[in-house]
Amino acid sequence: MAERDTLVDEVGGYRFKPHELPILPGSPANPDHPPARRAAYLAIGVYIGLVGGAQNGFLLANTGALQARFALTPVEAGWLTVAFYSTYACVSMLLFRVRQEFGIQPFVRWAMAGLVAANFVQMIAPGYYPELAARAVAGITASGLSALAIYYLMQGLPPAMRVGGLVISLGLSQIAFPLTRAISPALLVDGDMSRVFEFQFALSLIGFGLVYLLRLPPAIRKQTFERLDLPSFGLFLVGVAALCAFLIQGRIQWWDAPWLGYALVVAIVGLGGCFLIEANRKSPMLDLSWLSSRSILSLAAIGATVRVLVAEQGFGASGMFAALGYGNEQLTDYFWVLTGATTAGMVLSMLRLDPRDLTRPVLFAILVISLAAFADTRSGVMTRPQDLYLTQALIAFAAVFAMGPIMMEGMLRALAAGQNYVISFIAVFSLSQSIGGLAGIAGLSAFHTVRLKTHLIDAGSTLTLANQQLGAALADAARRIAPLQSDPALRQQAAGARISQEAGREAAVLAFNDIFFLIGTLAAVTFVIVFVPWLINKIRGRNPLAKELAFIAALSARTKS
After folding, report:
1. Element (H, E) at 94
2. CB under 8 Å to 272, separation ≥6 — which residues?
3. Which parts of 157-313 fold into alpha helices (H)?
4. CA distance 512 to 377
């Protein structure tokens, strides 16, 4: 405790009061700011959170334009996503130790400088391999910016709402996805990515200036790095990268590609080697005994499941609109609706956050996802984006409304167990979110492919000359083509191609309806699994977080005294 009592601002010589000291080494102090400075911290935190989420958002929103710009195959474009998620999913635990070892200010400078460098490379040296490297660096910095946003938000929020910084930061990263999809069409000129790269560079450069204009208060530093950290993290990185490659490229190349088996073996060996090292260390980065406890495993499973369920929006609805021929230009209003709904979910989650019952909002969110997914099963070839405004807005709302309480419960359990467990939770939460999202999209993509083939076979069995409806449709299509094609044989061939195209589009929509039904069913089952123990605890008057809440209350009282 003596170390905490002597924290002094290296620039101004200010000696921090007991209630202003940071709870964790590596986190900034929390002095009593004047209102204007508090508002500035809050604004910068919001900006950094959006910029961090936009790094992957712009990639996903403009994958098609990137493929056209660099003449990439779908496989090559998939490696860009692998590069981002490989670093984003696993560097959180390393950056946590960086903050503790070197202090908050060097961490801020490195994170922002790395982002500026990555975006600068994209802008001045566009190409596939520079883009691949920039994506990997962007994954590292995006992970760092999420923590940086939390710190700035906590400086700007009142003490009673400071814990809401976790929820806001998580929500901002999710808001960035529909937001980038909404503004990307205005940046693309004839499919040219130059303005997108310039816009990203401008965003990162402004952020770089903002964190220098208003720095975070100092943090307590302590020696944290050990000799075994490097090989352990190296194996973890290799394992996660191989797993990301398996999930992303498996969806693109299909799962029978021979090299995917080797990638899965590398993932198992890499992660297994990391876990073997961590299990035999005195001060591990990943405490496997704590992570393997029932409460943490169930929390990680719920978090990953929610990410899988939310894939209904990222793959299901968006994929269906793509199959119906809608591009980003026609979906701008749709993505603005999702942006507003996600923002509402973030705000309401923060306002309604109750540490005494963190399961209730998760149950509500899962129920909303289930009802909205079942409602989407009515979609057809005549469905327009505005027809799904309500249901997709509900899913966007539920996604961020659920994740805040899940993250909060994990942080409470980690803090109560000990400061060293925070890094373990950060690692498993980041991994469950990234891998859960990728696995959800990969699984839904495989399911859609199987169901699409089934519906195409069913449609093909009805496309015979004995089908009177088919004959009438062919005649109608031929009449429409007649002004453009005088040759009867070619006219009949074009009419048949048009009918086949319409049948394929209808089969694709039916397959997406099957996905909506699957997601609705999985959400309903998840709701029951989470609801039953929650109800039992309510009946018995037991709070599963009672010990953790008591510890945090005692810690807060000790800090204020």
Report:
1. helix 92-102
2. 239
3. 164-187, 194-213, 229-253, 258-279, 288-291, 294-311
4. 8
By 3-state DSSP, what share of the chain in percent is helix, strand and coil, each rounded to 5? 80, 0, 20
Per-residue confidence (pLDDT) for residue 490, from 0 to 100: 53
The residues near 163 (Cβ < 8 Å, ≥ 6 apart) are 353, 355, 408
Burial class of residue 164 in the structure, from the number of CB atoms within 10 Å of its CB (0-12 exposed, 13-18 middle, 19+ buried): buried
Q: What pLDDT score was predicted for residue 172?
A: 87
Mapped onto helix, strand or coil, the DSSP state of residue 34 is coil
How many angstroms separate the most distant Cα atoms in the chain? 93
Contact 239, 42 (CB under 8 A): no
C-beta of residue 286 within 8 angstroms of C-beta of residue 274: yes
pLDDT at 17: 67
| Three-class secondary structure of residue 228 per DSSP | coil
Helix/strand/coil (H/E/C) assignment for every residue in 340-402? HHHHHHHHHHHHCCCCCCCHHHHHHHHHHHHHHHHHHCCCCCCCCHHHHHHHHHHHHHHHHHH
Distance (Å, whole) CA 505 – CA 274 = 46
Those residues of the chain that have pLDDT short of 70 are 1-26, 190-191, 418-420, 459-501, 503, 552-561
What pLDDT score was predicted for residue 3? 44
State how far the Cα of 99 lies from the Cα of 106, in Å rounded to an integer: 8
What pLDDT was estimated at residue 420? 67
Q: Terminus-to-terminus CA distance in the chain, angstroms?
A: 13
* Residue 265 confidence (pLDDT): 92
Residue 50 has what DSSP assignment? H
Contact 153, 169 (CB under 8 A): yes
Take residue 546 and report the two structure tokens written for it: 């009672």
Distance CA 152, CA 415 (A): 20
- Taking CA atoms, 393 is separated from 102, 233, 328, 336, in Å, by 42, 39, 17, 10
Distance, CA of 143 to chain centre: 11
pLDDT tens for each residue of 43-89: 998 998 888 888 888 887 787 777 777 777 888 888 888 888 888 88
Which residue type is seen at 189? V
Give the pLDDT of residue 7: 59
Task: Check residue 528 and give its pLDDT.
Answer: 92
The CA–CA distances, whole Å, from 514 to 32, 373, 526 equal 54, 10, 18
CA distances from 109 to 140, 189, 203, 209, 213 (A): 13, 33, 16, 10, 12
pTM for this one?
Answer: 0.82
- Rounded Cα–Cα distance for residues 376 and 387 (Å): 9
Q: What are phi and psi of 12, to 5 degrees?
A: -95, -5
Task: Decide: residue 348, CB within 10 A, 0-12 exposed, 13-18 middle, 19+ buried.
Answer: middle
